[in-house]
TrEMBL record:
CDD domains assigned: 4HBT
Official protein name in the record: Acyl-CoA thioesterase
Highest taxon listed in the record's lineage: Archaea
Species of provenance: Halorussus limi
PANTHER family: 4-HYDROXYBENZOYL-COA THIOESTERASE FAMILY MEMBER, NOVEL THIOESTERASE SUPERFAMILY DOMAIN AND SAPOSIN A-TYPE DOMAIN CONTAINING PROTEIN (0610012H03RIK)
Keywords: Hydrolase, Plasmid
SUPFAM superfamilies given in the database record: Thioesterase/thiol ester dehydrase-isomerase
Length: 135
């Protein structure tokens, strides 16, 4: 899957930088998290903390460093939904192109039992409609 139907822009903050003046590698995961939060708010119409999902997989491939004077855009697309899993693919972009690619999988869970549960039909419908509308 390489279609990224959603994108959000993020500021590089001073606290994101390491001693070399580059965005620290761990901060890339924070950028992905912020993109997910924006996506859930804008598309699924639910704040991420209320979404009852847990991150079960995270993979980041770094292509080049990001510096303080750059603006970061995170593009994301949702893959084929599972029974309880929501796979996402990302590109972290700057003016010079792609700085990293990433994949995550979130699983919907029941807060009381801690067990996975089905993705609510309302979420499925919103995710599907948004993907079909080309963002």
């Amino acid at each position: 899957m390489t279609d990224y139907e959603y994108a959000t822009e993020l500021d590089v903050r001073f606290r994101d930088l390491d001693a070399m003046g580059h965005v620290n590698n761990a901060v890339y995961a924070t950028y992905l998290e912020q993109a997910r939060a924006d996506y859930y708010a804008d598309v699924v119409d639910i704040p991420l903390p209320e979404a009852d999902t847990v991150l079960v997989n995270l993979s980041i491939a770094y292509r080049r460093p990001v510096t303080a004077d750059e603006t970061v855009a995170v593009a994301l697309g949702v893959g084929d939904l599972g029974e309880s899993s929501i796979p996402m693919e990302y590109e972290i972009r700057t003016g010079d192109g792609v700085a990293a690619t990433a994949e995550t999988v979130q699983v919907v869970f029941d807060r009381e039992t801690g067990e996975s549960r089905s993705i609510p039909q309302e979420w499925r419908d919103r995710i599907t409609r948004y993907a079909q509308s080309d963002g």
